[in-house]
Every structure is written in C-alpha cells, then in structure tokens.
Amino acid sequence: MSTLRLIRTETVLSIRDKIGPLWGVGFPLVLLVILGNVPSLREPQEVNGGIATFDLYVPVLILFNLAMLALIAVPTVLAGYRQAGVLRRLQTTPVGPARVLTAQLVANLLTAVVATVVFLATARFAFGVGLPGAVPGFVVAWLLVAAAMLGIGLLITALATGQPQASAIGTVLYFPLMFCAGLWVPITQMPPLLRDISHATPLGAGMQAFQDAYAGDFPAAQPLLILTGYAVVSAAAAVRWFRWS
C-alpha cells in the first residue's frame, strides 16, 4: 500500500468515524460561539491593553483545537487500531511504521486546516475579531504548532498499549498544556517564573508566536525553534518506539 493511498484511507476513516470532525472541529467551534455570546468578554478591558478578552481567547482556542485533535483524536484512533489487531496485520505488509504514522499525521493535519479556517472565519464574520496582522507569520507558527502537537499525539499512540492508556496519557497532558497556553489565566498575567515555564511548552510557545502574528509581527525565533524541536524529537521518537502490538 502506497503512502498516498494510506493517507487517503485514513482521511476517509477519520471522517466516517467522526472522531476528527467532532473533537477537532465541532467542540472548539461550539466553545467559540458560547464565549462569543458572553457580553462581558466582548468589552475592551484596560488590563488587556484595551483589547476584549474574547479577542485574546481566539488564538487560545485555536491551540485548544489542535490540542484536542492531537491528544484526544490521534491516540484514540491508533491505539484502537493496535487493540483491534489492525497494526499487527499491517506488519505482514511492506508498510512500515513511518508510513502508518505519516498517514495519521497528514489525515489529522487536513482536519486541523479545515477547523482553523472555519474557526477564523466564524470569529471574523460572526464576532468581528480581526485576522492576524502578519498572515505569513501566523501560517508558519500554526504549521509548527500542528507538527509539534501531532508529533506528541503520535508518540503517545506509539507507546500506549490500548485505548484506555492512550486516553489517560492524552488527558493528563492536555490540561497542563492548555494551562500553559493561557486557557484559564492569560500568559501575560502569570508570574514571571510560570510565564517562562509556559513559553517552554509547545502550546505556550505557540501562543507566544500567535500573539506576535496577531500584533502584525513575524514570530520571534525562540518560540519557532522550541516548536521545531518538539516536532522533530516527538516524531523521531514515535517512529523509534512504534509497536505493532
């Protein structure tokens, strides 16, 4: 089975099983609409430099989208394949671990692209939230965040023995990573030490890069290098420790 055919198969299965569309598109979009209809979040706040809290949460919710897809959808699918014996059957074919993981990566990346476009369009046309001032910088940052988070998701599925373990690992990682992205407390309002720790995580670095892009600047080198490191190391480790059963 060629890599392209494997990617096509995984994409169709993702849509049919509704895992990717539900977690990667539907849930974050519903959350966006709910928050967008809270009047107090739409008002400019002095503590935010005159920016509405909802506007600050749009990039956070984009990271929420990617985290849901990478830490929930990807581990659930691949761990389910292993548990059902699908991966063991693939072991008897010329398909190697790199192709299997690449197919999952690309299939979920396509879902993430659709989700982000829908997300930005809804925020812009339904709630009047401006698009990033530096679109090329935002695209670069988004791609690196997606690669880093999906790489971590693939590493979880490579190490987990079944769906329960994969779901547990993904959930344990999800909440602290989203905290570091500023979901509960904006990064700018964190104590200096906690802010530095957050910037060293994939979602914290992603938020830093997104903020630069929304401000009209190309993201700084530091968060981009951090994201690149997470993407490369996690993807290499996923291939290295991939198990068929």
From TrEMBL:
Q: Could you tell me the membrane topology recorded for this protein?
A: Multi-pass membrane protein
* Residue ranges of domain ABC transmembrane type-2 in the record: 19-245
Name its cellular compartments. Cell membrane; Membrane
- Just give the chief location class: membrane
Q: Would you indicate the residue range of the signal peptide? A: none
Q: Name one GO cellular component term.
A: ATP-binding cassette (ABC) transporter complex
Q: Recorded GO terms, molecular function?
A: ABC-type transporter activity
Q: Which GO terms describe its biological process?
A: response to antibiotic
Record-linked PROSITE patterns:
ABC_TM2
* Residues annotated as transmembrane: 21-38, 58-81, 101-127, 139-161, 168-187, 224-242
Keyword vocabulary terms for this entry: Antibiotic resistance, Cell membrane, Membrane, Transmembrane, Transmembrane helix, Transport
InterPro entries assigned to the protein according to its UniProt record, in alphabetical order? ABC-2_transporter (IPR052902), ABC2_TM (IPR013525), ABC2_TM_bact-type (IPR047817), ABC_2_transport (IPR000412)
The protein's superkingdom reads Bacteria
The UniProt record lists the keyword Transport? yes
Which PANTHER family does the annotation name? DOXORUBICIN RESISTANCE ABC TRANSPORTER PERMEASE PROTEIN DRRC-RELATED, TRANSPORT PERMEASE PROTEIN
Name listed for the protein in its UniProt record = Transport permease protein
The organism of origin for this protein: Actinoplanes missouriensis (strain ATCC 14538 / DSM 43046 / CBS 188.64 / JCM 3121 / NBRC 102363 / NCIMB 12654 / NRRL B-3342 / UNCC 431)
